[in-house]
UniProtKB/TrEMBL annotation:
InterPro entries: Glyco_trans_1, Glycosyltransferase_grp1. It holds the Pfam family Glycos_transf_1. Residues 174-344 form the Glycosyl transferase family domain. It comes from Paenibacillus oenotherae. Gene3D superfamilies: Glycogen Phosphorylase B. Transmembrane segments: none annotated. This is Glycosyltransferase family 4 protein.
Length: 446
């Protein structure tokens, strides 16, 4: 058995409900295999002298101080590994670790790859990641997207997110109501508008069908959130769905469990460029819920088409991905009207949970972190790459895949400080060479 590693992490809670659900549970499971060391947020912020902005203003002189502060934090808490769970600062921390030549491994999860913000993140991270670090990619498509950015990411470990499958919560309800559950962030990339259009068709074919949409509205700006809310409200009015569609807002605990228990199936039509896994799909499996979802990115790693759910065709032949909405409606109608099919998929969902049980997943994480912590590496000098435009670092980046991205003249450092300004419609076109394979029906990427 490996000696228990001391893994530090920043305490506190993420702002978004879905991020809190994932990270809180993940840390709880990890803590059964390593010695977790809680670092207060204030102690962490002090590493930078107060704020990232002030630290950046004094760069590169401030890098010496950050490296020294990181070393002091490592010594104070006797850390073997640092779990980098405060994403915006991760590239700076890895940069400081390299600059100070510290014997400290970094553990990270690729929660996202294809959004503008996260592409900037992985571009900045690439020069400083080493074999002493463990980057977890939850699905094969996520790992491939990272590798399209830089060959550095070929060392990422493909290990899924996990949950607790003990005392499975599913009991098949033969005569349950025809309720469809959609849970997660409410944003245009999640295609809740498509879900409403599909449900208008479904409700005309399945008497008593209801759609429950649970989650918080998110977006780049208040204006974007307001515009999408108005669009969805307009669709509800247009199709006369006022009595059959419910928006619950964010739900947690018993309220969330009740929604899963009462539902007949889970619907997830995301074509989010930042999608990597689909945690709510794994949550649905705990209740034995069949899933109807887009054949998009990591969803196909979780759902076995025709066995525990249906994967609806997702195309990306034009400027942005599109969904076969008629197919989605047909799959939902099949499940809502065929209790035998639901029963079979219910059993298959519960059985497939084993591969996502933390007792199977966490030993893989522990082993990867342990072996990485034992490695001795030579860190690349920060001043060799930090201020050189990405477009001039062909040996590090896969520039053929990145040519369409509009901020490649930025350096690995400055790419982080620039504001995300690219509209989603334009961004889809720029990022397609990196994540075109997310849409499996797009034949040129298969």
């Amino acid at each position: 058995m490996n000696p228990r590693l001391r893994v530090g992490y920043i305490s506190g809670q993420a702002k978004r409900v879905n991020e809190r659900v994932i990270d809180t549970a993940w840390l709880r499971y990890l803590g059964q295999y390593v010695e977790l060391i809680e670092i207060p947020p204030l102690s962490y912020i002090k590493l930078f002298g107060g704020t990232f902005e002030k630290w950046l203003q004094k760069f590169p002189e401030s890098l010496d101080k950050l490296s020294a502060n990181l070393k002091a934090l490592q010594d104070k808490y006797r850390l073997d590994v640092f779990y980098a769970n405060l994403t915006p600062s991760n590239p700076y921390i890895v940069m400081a670790r390299n600059h100070g030549q510290l014997d400290l491994g970094i553990l990270m999860i690729a929660h996202c790859v294809g959004s503008e913000n996260w592409v900037r993140h992985w571009l900045a991270m690439a020069p400083f990641l080493t074999e002493k670090d463990v980057l977890l990619a939850s699905t094969a498509t996520t790992k491939r997207a990272l590798e399209c950015i830089s060959d550095v990411y070929k060392g990422a470990c493909q290990i899924p997110l996990c949950t607790d499958a003990d005392g499975l919560l599913g009991s098949f309800n033969e005569d349950g109501e025809p309720i469809i559950l959609s849970i997660g962030r409410i944003e245009n990339v999640k295609n809740i508008d498509a879900a409403l259009r599909c449900f208008a068709d479904i409700s005309a074919r399945v008497p008593g069908a209801r759609l429950v949409i649970a989650g918080e509205y998110t977006g780049r700006s208040e204006g974007q959130v307001r515009q999408y809310r108005e669009q969805l409200e307009g669709l509800v009015q247009q199709y006369g769905l006022q009595d059959t569609v419910t928006f619950t807002g964010s739900i947690v605990g018993a309220e969330k469990e009740a929604c899963f228990r009462s539902a007949a199936l889970l619907l997830n039509l995301s074509t989010d460029p930042g999608e990597t896994f689909g945690y709510n799909i794994v949550e649905a499996k705990r209740y034995g819920l069949p899933v109807v979802c887009t054949d998009w990115d990591g969803f196909r790693d979780i759902v076995r088409h025709g066995e525990d759910g249906f994967l609806a065709d997702c195309f990306w032949e034009g400027d942005k991905p599109s969904i076969d909405e008629a197919q989605v409606a047909d799959y939902c109608v099949q499940l809502l009207t065929d209790s035998g099919l639901r029963r079979r998929m219910h059993g298959a969902s519960l059985l497939s949970m084993e591969q996502f049980h933390y007792r199977k997943v966490m030993p893989l994480v522990e082993e990867a972190v342990y072996h990485a912590s034992e490695r001795v590496v030579l860190y690349r000098k920060v001043d060799e790459v930090w201020n050189t435009p990405i477009s001039e670092q062909g040996g590090l980046y896969c520039l053929d895949n990145l040519r369409g991205i509009s901020f490649l003249d930025a350096s690995p450092l400055s790419v982080l400080s620039e504001v995300n300004t690219i509209a989603l419609e334009q961004w889809y076109g720029q990022v397609k060479p990196l994540i075109g394979h997310f849409a499996s029906a797009n034949k040129q990427f298969v």
